[in-house]
Amino acid sequence: MQAIAQQLGSDFKAKPGNNPEVFTVERSALSGARVHMKSNAGSTQFHVHGTGFIIGRLINELGVARKVASAISKTSLAQ
Q: What is the rounded CA–CA span in Å between residue 33 and residue 28?
């Protein structure tokens, strides 16, 4: 979570979720993404989805969620 927040910069805030496998990344109150981590045979899969209601979720899928997924791919976590 911290490595992804560093990759994204100070405009984004990463916050832990309800369990250790989920966290959120927010740019503002209406702009964010939820990240689900799943361990699978020695590797970790990341599922990133935009947050919000209908239209906002779609916008976040195309904006913030893509940025978060890109940040994950650039960290050592994706290696």
A: 11
